[in-house]
Amino acid sequence: MPITTTKSWPAGLPCVLREGHSTQHGSPLVRTSMASGRARQRRAFTSVPSVKKVSWIFSGPQCLAFEAWFRDTISDGAEWFNMDLRTPLGISTPLVCRFTDMYEGPDIEAVDSWRVSAVLEVWTRPIIDGDWGLLPDFLLGVDIFDVAMNREWPAS
Question: Can you give the pLDDT at residue 26?
Answer without folding.
Answer: 75
